[in-house]
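Chapter summary example: a protein plus heme C.
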Amino acid sequence: MNRLIIALSMLLTATAVSAAGGGHVLYTFEPDAKNTSSVQRGAKYFMNYCSGCHSMEYLRFNRLAQDHAIPDDLLSKLMFTTDKPGEHILSAMPQEKAAEWFGQAPPDLTLTARLRGADWVYSFLKSFYLDDSKATGTNNLQLPGASMPHVLGGLQGYQVLGEEEHHDDAGGHHGPVEPPFELVVDGELSAKEYDGVVADLVNFMSYAAEPGKAKMHDRGFWALLYVIFILIPLTYAIKREFWKDVH
Ligand code: HEC
């Protein structure tokens, strides 16, 4: 019994820690991996802007197509790293070369949304800022010293880091602080449209990290119905059967 309690409390702690995501994030974001059109757009952005450097080794194109009902003609437009639907989403870039060029090989992104958290990835993609001291010309407030260039700079534009403002309320608590970014070069998109692109990308990455999750939730729902309508009445019937002779 004691062991059971210890195991249970360890499990609870682990869940709490993973829910906290292990660190400060600049923005919060609630992913929706079931939003089919958003995940489809995210997949398109990923193939266009990210797959040159990053792979998604554990996700297959045809799995993506099945789960999100992507028609064949659209699928073939996404598949420019391969021509086989059963293939994993690999990057065109040779890993050793990438490490040489960037000082750090671009990591596989299949599980990143789960390992880092959706908030983290969302914040990362919104937090590139101009920094002369970096070879890429930019730095990142969510991942200081990041060797990834701001590949979405054409869409977002370029921002600089201003003075940090602290909003202390009367009680001395720190209110949520907006990161002190200031846009100095306009991009093709408005700030709101850019947030939409980042949201699509993170929804796609959240789906990739747990492609079975949407289905698992449905299964949980059926399991609950089963307990309510079958298991409980059955248990009750058995109990009555047992106690019938006792009274
Ligand atoms: C030109 C190559 C290149 C492109 C294109 C690129 N990245 Fe990266 N990315 C990198 C490199 C290099 C790193 C490692 C950065 C570091 O750790 O300093 C990285 C790191 C990341 C990380 C952090 C992963 C982690 O857990 O540390 C995320 C998330 C990410 N990239 C997302 C994206 C997304 C989304 C796109 C497309 C919009 C993209 N990247 C396009 C090179 C690239």
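Key point: Residues 49-50, 52-54, 102, 104, 106-107, 109, 112, 116, 121, 124-125, 146-149, 151-152, 201 surround heme C (CB under 6 Å).
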